C-alpha cells in the first residue's frame, strides 16, 4: 500500500549522512539523487533497490509537511482517487500525468490532505518487454 515516504530536512547533507549511517544495517542505501534549485533530493532504497524513503530540502516555509504516496493498482485508480480528492475540496498540487523524470511508467497525482500534507496516488506501469527479432 505505501509506495514511498518523503521527508523535508533543514540540512539535507546531515539527513543523508544520518540515514545512510544509522540504517546501513537494514540495507538502506542512496539509490537516486537529483539536484533542485533548493538542494539535492535523495531517494533511499533497501535491498530491492526501489527508492521508498526520500529526503529533500525544506522548501515550504518553516513547516515540514510529510509526503506520502500510496500505490494504486492502475492509472484509472489514480484518476479516480484524484477526482475524489478534488471533489472533497483538496488543494490540487498536480493533476494526474506521467512523470518521466521519475521513470517512464510513473503515473501520479498530487494533492494536500486536510492537514496540509502532500499526498500522492501513484501507479508504476511495468516497462514493455524488449522486442525480439
Automatic annotation (TrEMBL):
Residues 1-124 form the VOC domain. This is Glyoxalase/Bleomycin resistance protein/Dioxygenase superfamily protein. It comes from the Bacteria. The keyword Signal does not apply. GO terms for molecular function: dioxygenase activity. It comes from Geodermatophilus sabuli. Keywords: Dioxygenase, Oxidoreductase.
Amino acid at each position: 500500500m505505501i509506495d514511498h515516504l518523503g521527508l523535508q530536512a533543514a540540512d539535507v547533507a546531515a539527513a543523508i549522512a544520518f540515514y545512510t549511517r544509522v540504517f546501513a544495517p537494514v540495507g538502506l542505501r542512496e539509490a537516486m539523487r537529483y539536484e533542485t534549485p533548493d538542494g539535492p533530493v535523495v531517494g533511499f532504497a533497501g535491498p530491492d533497490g526501489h527508492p521508498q524513503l526520500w529526503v529533500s530540502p525544506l522548501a515550504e516555509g518553516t513547516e515540514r509537511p510529510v509526503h506520502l504516496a500510496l500505490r494504486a493498482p492502475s492509472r484509472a485508480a489514480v484518476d479516480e482517487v484524484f477526482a475524489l480528492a478534488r471533489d472533497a475540496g483538496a488543494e490540487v498540487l498536480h493533476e494526474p500525468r506521467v512523470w518521466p523524470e521519475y521513470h517512464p511508467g510513473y503515473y501520479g497525482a498530487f494533492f494536500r490532505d486536510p492537514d496540509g500534507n502532500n499526498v500522492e496516488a501513484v501507479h508504476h506501469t511495468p516497462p514493455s518487454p524488449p522486442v525480439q527479432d
